[in-house]
Amino acid sequence: MDTKKMAIIATKGTLDWAYPPFILASTAAALGYETQIFFTFYGLQLVRKDLSVLKVSPLGNPGMPMKMPFGPKWFKSINWNMPNAIQAIIPGYENVATALMKQTIANNGVATIPDLRELCQEAEVKFIACQMTVELFGFEHSDFIDGLEYGGAATFFEFAGETDICLFI
Amino acid sequence: MNFDKELDARGLNCPLPILRAKKALADVGSGQVLKILSTDPGSVKDFAAFAKQTGNELLSTAEAGGEFTFFMKKK
Question: How do the residues of chain A divide into helix, strand and coil, expressed in percent and rounded to 5?
Fold first, then answer.
């Protein structure tokens, strides 16, 4: 049987959107897929050495429940969503939301992004960073983890053209 | 059921039970059995799908008090 292949384009640079590419890539690798992720635009944040840049914002995100990860059950079930205009003027709102999200992730036995990324690398998921956006955003190669390859759209197609599953996230 | 290695994946959520199982299977020989404990309700379908796609045999799935026990035989 030929080895199955999966390619993912990761374009989002927030803590919540960091999950789908790394979850799918690590699982695909565990299922025996040869897997590659192409990181472009804001997705480059997912391959930074410093992952503390990843945040989650409830601002302008009506799908995100704002629930507390601690306290009694009735307290945890309250949804603290508030109007965008109010969220926008509270200093540090994003940092608080990110800290609460990380606590919720830990409470639920969900892996952290650094862990999932490492699992992908251990499973030999190939990471490719878009050289054009590296330059566009003024990054240096030293901002990124080791083991990255740098390439462009043609590099992506070389592998993607032969895949069974190809996702844009 | 007899088994050769046990994996405690209780408290872990998707996709960690599968990833840990994949690792644990690497430590046992062909035909040997891995016992897996999990509390993730999604893992029931996931382990069946994992077995189907990797060729490892899921010998049994059992649930008791919110805890799942799987026995998987390595290909």
Answer: 45, 15, 40
